[in-house]
């Protein structure tokens, strides 16, 4: 999606350690007109696919998912919560996600009542790098028995392999910007 | 706002300890059509007031703020982040907020570049109870030198006093549902 790629080139910053900062418009300050265009594009890409619900994970996915949902007939958005601890009270699906950014494992939960067996789900998130967060959401979806129709991702860091691993498992992954290479020294970013 | 009050009566649950659960439509599963109506109502209430930016706090405020921003001419939404620790690198405004729900203090940060002196800001959040989170955001706004034009709140628990304390300090607080009393035993909820 040229609009998003251009914005990343203009306002994104490459930092050492394969970090791409897009906090000016995506995940700290949010450009909701951009989010709206992204939602429109995902709706175009997934046209004809049944989507009953959008699943995302706090915090950065929420705004994107909520604005995008308007283009999917206002389907409900459920966001997985980062929990203090895994609470095995039986009302929640839970899993554990390792964050490379924060270098620690954190528990993630979704209330069982918000994922119903047989529902068709689109998973939306701001970033896809190694795929740890999305694999965590997938595990929850498998346990819940929902049908994952695909992934709507804003920025995929293609060179980190998480997206292709999902594609190899047969999942549809629609990344609106897919970074092939980026360089912290020169600041250059190239897209697939 | 009758639409929100009715929804709270129908799907909200009162729990012991003054807890009102609205996770079916507001802060775990999100009804984006409801968020859109809420945004429209805040835009009506704040009509004629200059709003350059919307400020909220992760996680539950983000979806509401992003959908509402469309009714304020797509102004940018900035969400304060709950940080692991306060990082005094000079690039961030930070404060500490005590959460009664989680019974602990947590640091909150906003990058300085996203709050510019003289900007007119509307603060949006899902809940206003004792006002701790909003007072934290206010402190950051005061340090940044932005003009806080008011607060757009989904659910105020009026009996906990945080909203009136802000009103007594001269702030405009527009809560779309303001709970006067609620009872965990009978499940009854009454609004102001």
Automatic annotation (TrEMBL), chains A, B:
Pfam families documented for this protein: Pribosyltran
Catalytic activity, as annotated: XMP + diphosphate = xanthine + 5-phospho-alpha-D-ribose 1-diphosphate
Listed pathway(s): Purine metabolism; XMP biosynthesis via salvage pathway; XMP from xanthine: step 1/1
EC numbers: 2.4.2.22
Phosphoribosyltransferase domain mapped to chain residues: 48-146
Domain of life: Bacteria
Binding sites annotated in the UniProt record for xanthine: 20, 27, 157
GO CC entries: cytoplasm
Keywords, in A-Z order: Cytoplasm, Glycosyltransferase, Purine salvage, Transferase
UniProt keyword Glycosyltransferase present: yes
Main location: cytoplasm
Gene Ontology terms, MF aspect: xanthine phosphoribosyltransferase activity
Residues reported in the UniProt entry to bind 5-phospho-alpha-D-ribose 1-diphosphate: 129-133
Compartments reported by the entry: Cytoplasm
GO BP: purine ribonucleoside salvage; xanthine metabolic process; XMP salvage
Similarity field: Belongs to the purine/pyrimidine phosphoribosyltransferase family. Xpt subfamily.
Listed HAMAP family: XPRTase (MF_01184)
Record text on subunit structure and interactions: Homodimer.
The protein's role, per its UniProt record: Converts the preformed base xanthine, a product of nucleic acid breakdown, to xanthosine 5'-monophosphate (XMP), so it can be reused for RNA or DNA synthesis.
Name the record gives this protein: Xanthine phosphoribosyltransferase
Organism annotation: Alloscardovia macacae
Gene name for this UniProt entry: xpt
């Amino acid at each position: 999606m040229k609009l998003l790629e251009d914005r990343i080139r203009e306002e994104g910053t490459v930092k050492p350690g394969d970090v791409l900062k897009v906090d000016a418009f995506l995940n700290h300050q949010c450009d909701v007109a951009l989010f709206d265009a992204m939602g429109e594009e995902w709706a175009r890409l997934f046209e004809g696919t049944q989507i009953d619900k959008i699943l995302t994970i706090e915090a950065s996915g929420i705004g994107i998912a909520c604005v995008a949902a308007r283009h999917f007939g206002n389907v409900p958005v459920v966001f997985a919560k980062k929990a203090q601890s895994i609470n095995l009270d039986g009302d929640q699906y839970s899993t554990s996600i390792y964050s490379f950014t924060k270098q620690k494992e954190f528990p993630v939960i979704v209330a069982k009542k918000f994922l119903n067996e047989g529902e068709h789900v689109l998973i939306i998130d701001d970033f896809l790098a190694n795929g740890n967060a999305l694999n965590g959401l997938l595990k929850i979806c498998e346990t819940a028995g929902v049908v994952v129709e695909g992934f709507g991702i804003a920025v995929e860091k293609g060179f980190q392999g998480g997206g292709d691993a999902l594609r190899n498992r047969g999942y549809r992954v629609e990344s609106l910007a897919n970074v092939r290479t980026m360089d912290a020294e020169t600041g250059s970013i190239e897209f697939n």
